[in-house]
Amino acid sequence: MAKKSNQVPDEETYQLNRSSKVKVILFVILVIFILLIALFYVLWILYSSKRLIPEKPWHTEFKELNCSQNYFDHSSRCFKLLQENINSDTDKICNFNDPDLDSSICDFYCKSSDFDNGYCLSNQNHCNCTLNECFDTQFRDNQTNKCTEKALFTLQKHESSVLSLLQLPNGDLVSSSADFMIYVWNITDGTLKKQLQGHEYEVVALTGLSSYGLISGSRDRTIRIWDVEQEIQAKQLVYTDEILCLALLKNGELASGSLDFMITIWNIHNGTSIRNLTGHRGMVLTLVVLDNGDLVSGSSDTQIIIWDTEKGTIKSKIEVEYNWILSLVVLNDGRVVSGSSDQVIRIWNIETGELNKTLIGHEHSVRTLALLKNGNLASGSQDFKILIWNLETYQVVKNLTDHKDTITSLLALQNGNIASGSADTSIKLWNLNL
Ligand SMILES: *[C@@H]1O[C@H](CO)[C@@H](O)[C@H](O)[C@H]1NC(C)=O
Ligand SMILES: *[C@@H]1O[C@H](CO)[C@@H](O)[C@H](O)[C@H]1NC(C)=O
Ligand SMILES: *[C@@H]1O[C@H](CO)[C@@H](O)[C@H](O)[C@H]1NC(C)=O
Ligand SMILES: *[C@@H]1O[C@H](CO)[C@@H](O)[C@H](O)[C@H]1NC(C)=O
Ligand SMILES: *[C@@H]1O[C@H](CO)[C@@H](O)[C@H](O)[C@H]1NC(C)=O
Ligand SMILES: *[C@@H]1O[C@H](CO)[C@@H](O)[C@H](O)[C@H]1NC(C)=O
Ligand SMILES: *[C@@H]1O[C@H](CO)[C@@H](O)[C@H](O)[C@H]1NC(C)=O
Ligand SMILES: *[C@@H]1O[C@H](CO)[C@@H](O)[C@H](O)[C@H]1NC(C)=O
Fold first, then answer.
1. 272 lines ligand 5 (CB under 6 A)
2. CA of 402, nearest ligand number
3. Are the C-beta atoms of 403 and 384 separated by less than 8 Å?
4. Which residue owns the Cα nearest ligand 6 atom 8?
5. Confidence class of residue 139 from pLDDT cuts 50, 70 and 90?
6. How is the beta sheet containing 407-412 ordered, strand by strand?
7. 327-343, pLDDT tens digit by residue?
8. Domain membership flag for residue 43
9. Which residues cross the membrane (predicted)?
10. Domain range for residue 238?
11. Does residue 319 lie in a domain region?
12. Cα(98)–Cα(329) distance, rounded to whole angstroms?
């Protein structure tokens, strides 16, 4: 007992020891508390950074919204909270840059599994997209979901590729085809008016003047002149190889380009060849006439040649390396546009031979070109598309994607519209004055 009582510290010492122990405990508790706060802070930061705040292309500043029931405010946008999971087949992911999406009728929502206390944890906003109505002249392309111009009407009668188009002075449309036929259509009501039969192979080229009637060139090695009214052949010029293109010269003579690399100048009245223009080393695929009367030809030999047809001499040449020249058209300011097998449309200063501009947009050979009444350029390609280019901005202003095969021929109509012929055997008329 005494021993034990000896070991018991006196009251003062005991008090002292006790108070220092309490201090230590309090200190430890304080440290633990501080550590816990720090830990919570760190966890909070980690947790916050995990919230994937979706990209927000539709605004720059958040403002508080008063969202209605079943919606929650997120990034100044009312999102719908879905109870079920989203069916990825029927519900689309929004592309906010899509001009066809009218955001005012777009329902944004978040998967319930991604929803957490006011935040959408998914990095992709889901959206019940309601697409804009298309104009009457358009249809919705199932593949791209875009409003696409639809043809005013389709002329369907040819049994093979449509190869060339021409408008007669009375407004009628003439089409020639790989089915050897030439048809004359009323484009107001789309009725077939005449059928010109006689060619024995693909009719690749059409040209004409009222005084001569209609002129057609064919791979059957003939050029035929038709009396459209009587629906009969009036004259026939015979060549030694396949005719691939035609152009009427300013002096009334006719130029033909052929498979044998030759350009032949014809007297239409007596049906004789006046002279041959030699210089190409490939098929002559396209011919146009400049304001000054010079002839310009494009060939599979990658060259564009400017000819003096009176003298039969070459004035200048433009080389477009590795490219077949498939189509040519002359602009109002005298520049010449070429479409070629490398998908590129090139605008040339024909006097200097300098490349003035390249138009890139097609995904296959540019087969045909037409200058529209309003100065725009139409191009048709083996990518099945017709692009309309504004030649001031050099931008595509319309895509006409209704054909199902190569666009082989484009024609600017007197009323400002355009006609297109395709390897899908149809001819379509497009209203461009929306
Ligand atoms: C939100 O809506 C409620 C009920 O309609 C209304 O009482 C409240 O004032 C609104 N708040 C704002 C900020 O508009
Ligand atoms: C999407 O919108 C359509 C039309 O408004 C509606 O019928 C459909 O239920 C909506 N879907 C979802 C998942 O909200
Ligand atoms: C596009 O969708 C419409 C309506 O659903 C359908 O009638 C048409 O055949 C579809 N076109 C194509 C090319 O799938
Ligand atoms: C084309 O058809 C329309 C409507 O049927 C008619 O008014 C017009 O005169 C026709 N044009 C020609 C050139 O025959
Ligand atoms: C055809 O006319 C041209 C003049 O353009 C002339 O040189 C040529 O001799 C004529 N040929 C025939 C067979 O009459
Ligand atoms: C032009 O070439 C063709 C084919 O070689 C030939 O038949 C024709 O006589 C030539 N014409 C002239 C005017 O030399
Ligand atoms: C292209 O041609 C236009 C019209 O002739 C001219 O104004 C422009 O300077 C030319 N641009 C180039 C790069 O040659
Ligand atoms: C139209 O063509 C241009 C150029 O090829 C392309 O950038 C654009 O996406 C096309 N638009 C449509 C609706 O196909």
1. yes
2. 3
3. yes
4. 273
5. confident
6. 153-156, 426-430, 418-422, 407-412
7. 999 999 999 999 999 99
8. no
9. 24-47
10. 148-430
11. yes
12. 34
